[in-house]
TrEMBL record:
Signal peptide location: none
Domain of life: Bacteria
Coiled coil spans: none
Species name: Streptomyces flavalbus
Pfam families, per database record: HupF_HypC
Similarity remark: Belongs to the HupF/HypC family.
Name this protein carries in UniProt: HypC/HybG/HupF family hydrogenase formation chaperone
Amino acid sequence: MCLGIPGRIVDVREEAGLRTGTVDFGGVRREVCLAYTPEAGVGAYVVVHVGFAIARVDEAEAERTLEVLRAMADAVTGELGEPLPRPGGAAG
């Protein structure tokens, strides 16, 4: 299964000539390549697939999608390596 997971960009930087950053997926943070979303800056929401941000998405859509993904904990764990935390800090 292939998932595109929405997350919020928390920092942006250049590494070896490649635009990268940290993306927060509702409590899980990962390093992501941002080269395909040059318009997305800190605070923007992006859809990430296999470590690459592939599209911008608005915050409301990102939150709706994250809630659905929390309900699909096994699929998310397989993609991110750990479950998304529940709102308020409790893991799913």
